[in-house]
Design a protein that fits this description.
heterodimer, A: 232 residues, mainly alpha, 0% strand, globular, B: 309 residues, Rossmann fold, 2 domains, 9 helices, 27% strand
């Protein structure tokens, strides 16, 4: 519990100490408010900024930071303590999820979503947040340095925001991507007059991506705890 | 050469064979890495704390937040504030770690080690980044922790510095580990003959040249890995002369055999410190503020010979 709480609090504060991630935490809510003021549908503004939050918080705030820490040897000193590796990673993962959810709620509210609908917006955000966070941590646990972590992060960030942009501007449904469920659930496609998408397909795709993220995360965590036992 | 009855064929066997004893090993990086793994194996189940050269800390943390993180992580009874104060970092508590000087980062790492309340401490080159004042703080901490039963195992440190730390110093040659020679019971040493002046030059080599040093230029002479070296203005020059001969020849120039492996120019001694019951340290006034060990048995002789109160 000590390790979980220590990692959780450290990473929660670390997100705001890192200028790159702090700017994400400030700019996304600002854009949600700006889009709302410019007259965009709340569904579009909320979906896009929530997806941006999910993609950038997990990659810029955590994946990139994990690569940087590994490169600087900062995490090595933590890994060599007697603290449980699983608890440490769980603490970090929880900090990432909480940051994503808190900022998503703020973005939804600033984008014009009715306060009573904000919990629903958060539920709709989960199909984007969970795979992005799990995959970011899986890559973060194996990233040898920051430059590679940043490159890998691009492959997570871009698919997060494309579905809403494509649905809104070219009426293209990128349903195989994990974040499309958020686009659909928040009604971006509906606002363009597109027929409802089959819920079973959305659920299946979301579950598949979350499962894939979890499997990758578990493998990376097993590798991390294995290497810790060898202190390598 | 003197007998080396207790040498070990590998660092793993040294650590296993000297279990529970503080060891300071002059060795290369690969042996240091193997030593770390051997310590992990030999002291499994004990509270171990590690300080590696690569441990730089989180750049964006402050020393206070960094130590609070470790204090929480380890469930330590030592607070971050106490650890900071002990290592003289109180004024830097809210400075970003990325802005700390290497010496301050090293002290921060020592502060981190105390939070683990360790039974065993493993360090790579613990004194490398430390100036004289910081070195005093760290050696005093090591001395008091050692007196309380903490085992220190350090690697990659030059023998001269390894001899300053509590415990036994070892050096590596061709994979074998040999104990550093320690003589706490010297026989009658040479007597300082005042300001008598006679021509005396110390022969040394530099590449293909043979150099002759005026004794007044020499800071100290050390014996390392079966070779003697003369230290002049921060450079070490190998000399063919034997330490015993140099001890006799240089005594009248104010040189003193402070350790089996060292002769020091007393004019260069700036500070004498005692960290533990058996550990003395001479800090020189040379450019590098070199620290040399002063054997316990020779401390009294030095005091008497030089007429110190």
């Amino acid at each position: 519990m000590n390790a979980f709480l220590a990692a959780f609090l450290h990473d929660l504060a670390g997100f705001w100490r890192n200028p790159s991630s702090a700017i994400v935490g400030i700019m996304c809510p600002f854009f949600a408010w700006l889009f709302h003021r410019m007259g965009f549908y709340p569904s579009f503004s909320a979906a896009l900024t929530i997806q941006l939050i999910a993609g950038s918080v997990s990659t810029v705030g955590f994946l990139s930071a994990m690569g940087e820490e590994r490169e600087q040897g900062a995490w090595g000193a933590v890994a060599r303590t007697s603290a449980c590796a699983e608890a440490l990673v769980a603490g970090r993962l929880s900090a990432c999820l909480l940051t994503c959810l808190a900022l998503s709620a703020l973005c939804a509210a600033l984008a014009g979503v009715e306060p009573v609908q904000v919990p629903f917006a958060l539920l709709a955000a989960l199909p984007t947040i969970l795979p992005a966070t799990l995959l970011s941590f899986a890559l973060g646990l194996v990233a040898p340095d920051q430059s590679r972590a940043n490159a890998w992060g691009t492959f997570i960030l871009m698919p997060c925001i494309l579905p809403t942009l494509c649905a809104m501007f070219i009426e293209l449904r990128l349903w195989p991507l994990p974040s499309y469920a958020t686009t659909e659930l928040l009604g971006v496609a509906a606002s363009r007059g597109l027929a409802p998408f089959p819920a079973a397909v959305l659920a299946g795709v979301s579950i598949a991506w979350i499962g894939l993220g979890y499997a990758a995360f578990s493998l990376a965590l097993r590798r991390e705890t294995g290497s810790r036992r060898g202190l390598s | 050469m003197p007998d080396r009855p207790n040498d070990y064929p590998s660092v793993e066997e040294l650590i296993a064979g000297q279990h529970g004893v503080s060891l300071h090993i002059e060795c290369d990086r690969q042996t240091g890495e193997r030593a770390r793994k051997a310590v992990q194996e030999a002291y499994r189940g004990m509270r171990c704390a590690y300080y590696l050269e690569t441990d730089k800390g989180f750049d964006r943390d402050t020393p206070l937040s960094y130590l609070r993180f470790f204090s929480r992580l380890l469930g330590s009874s030592v607070t971050a504030e106490e650890a900071l104060a002990h290592f003289g970092l109180k004024d830097l508590a809210r400075t970003r770690i990325g802005k700390l000087a290497p010496e301050q980062r090293a002290l921060l790492n020592f502060a981190r080690l105390t939070l683990a309340e360790p039974e065993v401490v493993f360090c790579e080159r613990p004194l490398i980044e430390l100036g004289p004042d910081a070195r005093t703080i760290v050696l005093q901490w090591m001395g008091s922790a050692s007196d309380e039963g903490c085992v220190f195992i350090t690697v990659n440190e030059p023998l001269r510095e390894a001899l300053l730390m509590p415990g036994n110093a070892w050096w590596e040659e061709d994979g074998r580990l040999f104990p550093a020679q320690v003589d706490d019971d010297p026989t009658d040493g040479p007597v300082f003959a005042g300001d008598e002046v006679r021509v005396c030059k110390v022969q040394a080599r530099s590449g293909s040249s043979t150099l002759f040093f005026d004794p007044r230029e020499i800071d100290f002479i050390e014996s390392m890995n079966r070779q003697n070296y003369v230290s002049v203005r921060g450079e070490l020059y190998p000399t063919p002369a034997k330490l015993d001969e140099l001890e006799v020849d240089l005594a009248r120039f104010g040189f003193f055999r402070c350790h089996r492996s060292y002769i020091v120019n007393v004019q260069r001694v700036a500070k004498v410190e005692r960290f533990t019951r058996n550990s003395f340290n001479l800090t020189l006034s040379d450019a590098a503020h070199t620290s040399l060990p002063l054997a316990k048995g020779r401390a009294e002789e030095m005091r008497a010979t030089l007429g110190w109160k």
